[in-house]
Amino acid sequence: MTTTPNAQAPNDQDPHANDAAPYGGGDPYADYRTFGDADAFTDLVDLADRRLGAGVIAANDEFFAMRENLLVRERAVFDPEHFGHKGKVMDGWETRRRRGTADSPFPAPEDHDWAIVRLGAAGVVRGVIVDTAHFRGNYPQRVSLQAASVPGAPGPDELLADDVKWEEIVPPSQVRGHAANAFAVTSERRYTHVRVCQHPDGGIARLRVHGEVVPDPEWLGLLGTFDLVSVLNGGVYEDASDKFYSSPTQIILPGTSRKMDDGWENRRRRVHGTNDWVRFRLAAQGAIRAVEIDTAYLKGNSAGWIALSGRNGETGEWFEIIPRTRLQPDTLHRFPLAAQAVATHVRLDAFPDGGVARMRVHGVLTEAGRSALEERFRRG
Question: Which of 70, 30, 42, 66 lies closest to 54, judged by CA?
Fold first, then answer.
């Protein structure tokens, strides 16, 4: 795979300069490319993850390939021999070729196709990946993204109504074929839906919308005790000693782990006297009552021991929540706390290394935490 994070903008004078070479056999990802600084935001949770409840709820056209493919978690696959009644079967969202008139056969400049994605968790978008894997000569010339904040569970008709305010978060921008095209987003607004547009038509394999969840404090208040570190409730992965095999963000995803790589696993540590760790910011300041550590599917590679520490504020001192404790492989461990621990951050230490599938930090918001969360929610 070719990675060019600081490459120049796509060629605006010759759109075909952005095409990938025709597939020549062998590994279809051998000449796959990445453009833009994806590392700046891809450690953040994908707000359009199906595991969070995201979905593609409408599209104006999906003649060649279904819109739902945009959110498939696995990378797109390519079978050069797979054809159907409508043509080549592609693993992505692909629209038909737009036409103009007999005198002007090309589409008009404003012509475009669109698909609306309901984010699994509302939040601030920090960056998007428009992945055109295997769309080598049939990708869109440009893409753009708009976002909106609509409460409740609106359907397509409500989202397309004239009174819905869609804000542009990625202006019409050229993309490359057979590539991951990364775009940073600077808006601080809280969004519930995004609309991806292809100008004028073409195919996109996958869409990723990375950002930070901003939960509804009224809903969390109704729940009472909840998981303070879950991404669905606004928990954020901040840093880790190692993320060799998988992203630490997966520790705080909802649901249970489905397989070994659906958690956090680091490489084998060989330096004596050291250990691996991962740090998270809670949804807001909370009083922690109980903790769960799950090593599901991690049998010969789970962490040997763990310890959990807390910190109150960005510069507070770390204090012990759970002392160093032996873990069992492929097991859910529950730790009731003798006294509530008030914190804004937690750090999970693994000794000396190994994997953790999920962590739950159950508690309630403090008054200060609730006020801070309400203020952030109102800003969105």
Answer: 70
- The pTM score is 0.88
Task: Tell which residue, 206, 232, 259, has the closest CA to residue 52.
Answer: 232
Q: Which residue has the higher pLDDT, 11 or 258?
A: 258
Coil, helix or strand at residue 156:
helix
SS3 376: helix
- Contact, 283 vs 219, CB < 8 A? no
Q: What's the chain's Rg over C-alpha atoms?
A: 23
CB 75: neighbour CB atoms within 10 A? 14
Closest by CA to 202, choosing from 297, 62, 320, 30, is 62
- The enclosing H or E element of 307 equals strand 305-311
Question: Angle 127-188-36 (CA atoms, 0-180°, nearest 5)?
Answer: 20
Report the C-alpha gap between 341 and 227 in whole angstroms. 14
The bridge status of strand 2-4 relative to strand 33-35 is parallel
pLDDT tens per residue, range 303-318: 999 999 999 999 999 9
State the pLDDT at residue 194.
Answer: 98
83 in helix, strand or coil? strand
> Concatenated DSSP letters for 109-145?
TT--EEEEEEEEEEEEEEEEEEE-TT-SSSS-SEEEE
Look at the alpha carbons of 133, 137, 142, 147 in this order and tell me if their dihedral is positive or negative.
Answer: negative
Task: Enumerate residues 6+ apart whose C-beta is below 8 A from 186.
Answer: none
pLDDT tens digit sequence for 189-240: 999 999 999 999 999 999 999 999 999 999 999 999 999 999 999 999 999 9
Q: Collect all residues with Cβ–Cβ distance below 8 Å to 297 and sequence separation of at least 6.
A: 257, 258, 259, 260, 262, 263, 330, 357
Taking 90 as the threshold, does the pLDDT of residue 117 lie above it?
A: yes
Q: Is the pLDDT of residue 329 over 80?
A: yes
Percent above pLDDT 90 for the chain: 77
Closest C-alpha among 260, 245, 289 to residue 358: 260
